Amino acid sequence: MRYINIEEAKPGDIVAKSIYGLDRRPLITDGMVLTDRYIERLKEFGVYGLYIVDPDLEGVEIEQGLDEQFKLEAMDRLQKIFAEVQKNNRIPAKAAVNLANEITDLILAKRDFIVQLKDIRFKQTYLYSHSINVTMLAVLTAKGLGYNLINIKKVAVGALLHDIGYMRTADPSAHPLAGFEILRREDEIPLLSSHIVLQHHEAIDGSGSPFKISGDQVRDAAQICAVCNDYDHLVNAVEDAKLPHESIEYVMAQADHKYRVDIVRAFVHNIAPYPIGTSVKLSNGQEGKVVHVHHGLPMRPMVRLKNGDVLDLQDEKTLFVAEVLKTQELKI
Question: Which of 59, 171, 212, 247 has a CB 3.0–4.6 Å from the CB of 234, allowing a cystine?
Answer without folding.
Answer: 247
